[in-house]
Design brief:
single chain, 161 residues, alpha/beta
């Protein structure tokens, strides 16, 4: 059986003050999307997928988003550079590692690249796009990554470019 893991990137409870002031709707959007990710995690946990919460080392946030439940069997990693070492130290072997969260083309790709390189698997429909970006722009600038879509049936690779 293939062992999978899903990394949720930067699901912070509060925004950086500058982003909150510039994009007043973003906090509500993130909380709504966080609720969706929570449901995805429940489905994936039942399938045996390991859920990993990865937070960049920003000190300006109040902590993890309350809308996404962190279960005792989940991993919480403060630095994407440590993900593979943490998985190995935990005695887990992961065959397929997928990345999602906040925000597509920025932190998701940045943490994925720091963790496993620029051939990482990004789950497009499990990422939120930052307000100043466009999907077309982000895909054009991130062509080396592998892209997937998620459904209750699993992760399906798609050719977006």
């Amino acid at each position: 059986m293939v062992k999978k893991a899903l990394v949720i990137v930067d699901a912070w409870e509060d925004l950086v003050a500058h982003d909150a002031a510039t994009y007043p709707h973003l906090a509500d959007e993130m909380k709504s999307f966080g609720g969706f990710l929570n449901e995805v995690c429940k489905i994936e946990r039942k399938k045996g997928t390991r859920i990993i919460h990865s937070y960049a080392h920003y000190t300006t946030h109040s902590g993890p988003m309350k809308d996404i439940e962190i279960y005792p069997e989940d991993m919480v990693i403060p630095n994407a550079n440590d993900i593979m070492a943490a998985i190995e130290a935990d005695g887990d072997s992961i065959d397929e590692l997928y990345w999602c969260g906040f925000h597509f083309g920025v932190c998701v790709h940045g943490q994925a690249e720091a963790g496993v390189g620029d051939k990482a698997n990004i789950v497009t429909n499990l990422c939120l796009l930052f307000p100043i970006h466009s999907w077309k722009e982000m895909f054009a600038s991130k062509q080396t990554f592998n892209y997937y879509l998620w459904s209750q049936n699993g992760f399906e690779e798609v050719n977006i470019l």
